Amino acid sequence: MQVGGSCRPDGRHLPSSVIKARTRQIAVFAGRHDRMPVDVFEVESAPRAARMLLLSACDRQQATIERAHEPRRALLRLQLPTRPDPRSYTDWTWVACSVSLPPTIPAGAVLHLPTIRPRGGGVRVDLAYTQAVPKAVRSGHVVALGVDWGLNTLLCAGAARLNEDGRITALGAGGMFRAAGVLAKQHRLRRLSEYLNAKVDHYQRLSAGDEQHALAGKRTVLSDEISRVCARRSNLNDTLACAAARWAVDQAIAAGASVIYVEDLRSLEARGMGRTMNTRLSQQVRGQIVDRMRHMAAETGTAVVSVPAHNTSKHCPRCLTPLSHRKAPDRPTAPGWKWAVCPSCHWQGDRDHGAWQRIAARGLAHQAKTVTDRTTGAMAIRSVVDPLEAGAVITPHAHQTSRRDRSKIGPTRHKTRRPTPRRRRTPSPARPPGPAGKRPEGHAHTDRPRLPRAADRHQDVTTISTSTVSRHRPRGSALGAGFHFHAHASPPLWNPILGPDTMPGTGSLCRSETLAR
Asked: Which of 145, 148, 139, 149 is nearest to 171 (CA)?
């Protein structure tokens, strides 16, 4: 990458998305100023400085920190001026501040000078500490955790083992980290931010930059609301990244994995799937999740390695044959992408489950090709080697190879030619004398009208009647079956209830006449 005659070292390792974004910035700058920028800093706007005090740049003559006698307290000593314009050493004095330590800081950790920030009428301290952890290694791994990215299912992970004979087997069925609710809220906040920004731009065009315009106050209010929405989006992304990284590291600890192989999607360009889907894919918090994952995995000495994402969801994890996708396992003809079926070895499963198996197998097979970045210390597998990729397959267990496919492809209850009749064919017995006793089954002789017959013998009888005056005559109602084919209830009987305060012909009889209409 070249800007103003200077070349970016190691530019071949930059993602294509970064190169495209910088190219667009340079094109906009050249269109405005009719020249090329001198460097990248000229393309970007001036950064905003936050209100904070970095004590890490101070030496021990100005600031010190040590643990207090109490278990969860630390003592921060600062040398602060006693007057606005200090002129000599006598104008400075030492001030001691007691800092409460969170329970996440180990007892044997070494504390470093913090960063002080004013917030909400108080002072917040961002405290850094150092503790001894096992060193993560690049190769020699036996059990690995493969992590695949998704849209609604943010993470899908599972463990795989490299056996002594070179075979790779899956340990369990894996798990999913579903964050559909959080992602939906994030999507709503993004749309709200876009709407507010569009409204501010519209007010800016109408007012033409005049601060005395009537719309200037509304523009200021909307700008403050945009800041609040951006803060909510940032907090939501931080919380989601921390939760997802914690879940992935816990999966690795539970499986006994010494390495986590993550799909590298830095060069992903979301396009061709609609404006909404492209935006949701491009605004994922994958970078934050990987950074948090590396930080949390370092506590247990677990390595986090990024692997190429080429054909991880396209090929079968057992035989590397291109998969055919469908919408669901019981809908073989419906087009979709969620369910994958291998035409060669007949493996089938969720697309994301097959992807994490491919990622874990590829990482274990290429672990000798792992390199470490000198600047950031991040581990990565840059390319895929064909001879090693041929052995990056998941070998099924013995009980998995002999299992017969029992997927449901049709109805469980078959429709017979002679179904059981809905009513008994023998005549009903005579009704016993007296008022007591149950009403006999079947077509008993009563004074009430008969129930309407169903349009089909496999269809239940309903009691919904249709008026002869109404022009709206649906098919089921025209045949005497009613609207709701699954409903079957006895018709109500409204009898006059006479009481001491009720006159004949009123009360419940009026309700019967109203319902009859």
From this structure: 145
Q: What are the pLDDT tens digits along the chain (517 aa)?
A: 444 444 555 566 677 777 888 888 898 888 888 888 988 888 887 777 778 888 888 888 889 999 988 888 999 999 989 988 888 888 999 999 889 898 888 888 899 999 988 888 888 888 888 888 888 898 899 999 999 987 667 889 999 999 988 899 999 888 888 888 888 888 889 889 999 999 998 988 888 877 788 888 888 899 999 999 999 999 998 998 999 999 999 999 999 999 999 988 766 555 555 555 555 555 568 888 999 999 999 989 999 999 988 888 889 998 989 988 888 888 878 888 888 889 888 888 888 889 999 999 999 999 999 999 888 888 999 888 888 888 888 888 765 554 555 666 667 666 666 665 555 566 666 666 665 555 555 544 555 555 555 444 444 444 444 444 445 444 444 444 444 444 434 444 444 544 444 444 443 333 333 333 3
DSSP code at position 1? -
Three-state secondary-structure class, residue 29? helix
Residue written as token pair 């369910």: 339
Alpha-carbon gap, residue 213 to 203, rounded angstroms: 10
Per-residue three-class SS string for 390-416: HCCCECCCHHHHCCCCCCCCCCCCCCC
Length of the chain, please? 517
Does the pTM exceed 0.85? no
